[in-house]
Amino acid sequence: MSDYSFQFGKFDYICSNVMLTLCPLVGPKDGVEPVCYSRNVRLVDTLIFQPSTLIIHLIALIMTAIMIYHIRSKYTAVGRKEIIMFFYLYMLVTIMDLLLISGIIPTASNLYPYFTGVHLGLISATFWCLLLNGFVGFQFAEDGTPLSLWSIRISSFVVFAAVTFLSIATFTPISPFDNGNPVALWIVFFIFNGAALLIYVILQIVLVVNTLDDRWPLGDIIFGIAFFATGQVILYVFSVQICNFAKHYIDGLFFGTIATLLSVMMVYKYWDSITKEDLEFSVGSKQNVWEVKELLGEDEMGGGGGMYGQQQNQGHGYGGPSPAGGPYGQANYYNDGY
């Protein structure tokens, strides 16, 4: 068992239970080593840490690529371009996690603190991007427009840059930050990121209850919360017990990574359940979801020479304008290059 006790603003207790990327850089002079962790393997003269977790990271990258492909294929879905930014960020977080946890970038390297800073910055930017996606359904800014897209991009970059600087300043350290007492980094890592996730969940529950007659999307939200919460508990509470029981073959990080992947997949499933594919090509009558419609008059429908005819000629995904979901019951056309 750990000799450390939980303290606000300190990672010592957490790092003594599970190997996080920041653990070698905070706390005592040489960081905090977990009591029990997954055994290493040697591959082509390279020592690979957490090999089982590395496999899950590779699976996560494949699954994320599949989800991104399906999101990109839903040309007229509301918030398509906004939500895809979240999955790109999650993919970057996974890549950084893979490089740091596995030891491909060794902790002894002079670059390790900087890569870890980027990793923590990407994590916070991912949570922030998810939070802003929670507002898309309320149409405060019309989805797919430059205002909606660039507000998410710029603010997410600001969060990324701020947290990256804070992390590197803590690890180096740069006064007034101290790696022996990383309170600011602890607050960002747990409170800021946790608050962003909580607000997103609340927003989506309000959206489903007040906007949709279909309550099935609530199930996706509940499953997503359950997966994420379970993963965090396993990661920070039961990692040592799992490691000892499995004789060092796996630890809590393995199951925590799986749970995080499942929760991200539920974010996709939830978004997919409240959006609909291009109505011009879709078949079916699923109701009570966000739809992108163009209410055309008889003069526009006739002859194929109006907007409908132009839309058919230009097509979707071939360089022509793409319909973007505005307020319910209408569509707006914007340049697909944003």
From TrEMBL:
Pfam families in the cross-refs: Chs7 (PF12271)
Residues of the region (Disordered) are 306-332
Q: Name one GO biological process term.
A: protein transport
Domain of life, per UniProt, equals: Eukaryota
Q: Which InterPro entries match?
A: Chs7
Q: What is this protein called?
A: Chitin synthase export chaperone
- What membrane topology does this protein have? Multi-pass membrane protein
Where do transmembrane segments lie in this chain? 48-71, 83-105, 111-138, 150-171, 183-209, 221-242, 248-268
Q: Which GO terms describe its molecular function?
A: unfolded protein binding
- Which family is it part of? Belongs to the CHS7 family.
Give the record's keywords alphabetically.
Cell wall biogenesis/degradation, Endoplasmic reticulum, Membrane, Protein transport, Transmembrane, Transmembrane helix, Transport
GO cellular-component terms in the record?
endoplasmic reticulum membrane
List the source organism: Linnemannia exigua
**Extent of Gly residues compositional bias:** 316-328
Which PANTHER family is this protein grouped with?
CHITIN SYNTHASE EXPORT CHAPERONE (PTHR35329:SF2)
**Transport: is it a keyword of this entry?**
yes
Q: Where in the cell is it found?
A: Endomembrane system; Endoplasmic reticulum membrane
